[in-house]
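Teaching assistant's notes for section 4

Start the section by putting this record on the projector. Ask students to predict, before seeing the second block, whether Zinc metallochaperone AztD will look compact or extended. Collect guesses on the board.
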Amino acid sequence: MIRMNGKMSTLTSLALVSALALSACANGDGQEEPTDEPTAGAEASAEGAAADAAEDGGEDEEQVEPSDRPTHEAGGPSPRLAVTYDGGVSVIDGATLEVLGDFSAQGFVRVNPAGDGRHVFLAEGDSFRLLDAGTWGEPHGDHNHYYTTDPLLTDIAVDGDTPAHVVAHHGIGVLFFDGTGEYHWFDIADLDAESEIETESAATEGVHHGVAVVMEDGTRFETLEDRSGARVLDAEGEELARAENCPGVHGEAAGPDPIIAVGCEDGALIWDGSEFQKIDGGAEYARSGNLFPAEGSPIFLADYRTDQDVPMTEVALINAETLELTTADIGAAYNFRSLARGPEGEALVLAEDGQLHVIDAETGERIDQVQIMDEWTEPEEWQQPRPAIRVIGDIAYITEPEAQTIHMVDLTSLEIIHSAELDFVPNEIAAADGRPAHGAQEGEHDHGDHDHGDHDHGDEDHDHDHDHDHDDEDEHDH
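Reveal the predicted structure now:
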């Protein structure tokens, strides 16, 4: 299905290592436990999954029972990628870049991580449909055990009018429907390929392209109907705070607790756990519609547009502690799928000059850049494929639709360490890192405390003002 090339011998953090003393726990002999470094699957599990996928023809024509899938123990986390294309979605091994599963889907399909390191939601038609990427970790004392199985596109779905944003926050997932302004939330730990998703729901003040976050204590953050800002409600639905000074509110990301940030057409809006704080964008029109956090950092990377008719070439660095917004000039155009954060919190921008630019998030200074592909131009319609970037650990996965290729970039050395040709044109990409979610405990699989934005809850892919008709696209992007 693919032709592979590249410096496989240089795979660093995603090296195909053999299982490391998998029996140490059972034997109690003090041998080294399985590494917690991301390996994208031990060879045995990767080969087994690939063989199973090949045996099935990589297709979903034949119904597979979730419980019939074989389980393989891995020597470490086994990242996988869900990549959409016209008419379907493929699950790709994060180390070999082999296609492990291929599934048909109806219409234009969007994809967002569920927040548990394993599952992905497809926004398909009038529902969020659950895709099991087949990789996960389970806490075991002072370490984790890791497993893989065959990917599976399930029939489990949450239905609603115009599925849009997916947010995961402290073990609670939220699905937002633009067509009604309603959102449904659920315990991420309960996601399972064999069980329907039990949700609670609430409605915002009206229909709009919005987002909501539900917190551990039941407090809810939601955008306003006229997109002028956001409000916070307690668990009983009583309003605690409201801000109406964030026109065109869009995007959402969580910083160090209890910070939640959204973008505005004139800066950004910060919820600090007790009140809203507005950050000025530095111009009458200074739109930041997609925010990307880094673990432990109060600084968000965001897109930055001061002219609706001119391509973006600057990014914003929004500091939720100092309430300051600074900008960094990339020197080349980029778009809403171009942004990510690196392992040290660095800002990553995949620009139309074909380069991956690395920016110091604290100073805004350019650190380095690496040529990934030839120059390219953003397509006219936002649904059309364009290069996209996702990061797992210190590996960046970058799609190149024109060449039907996906690249792995080692962010520590800034080298392309592996590339693979696909037999389809890649569009959207989401990552399942195969790790237990932060805060997970043995026997209590709490899949929460994931930052979102960098983990792609989907906000970055739901901003479609681009360089064309901002008002129309931003309202009709789903």
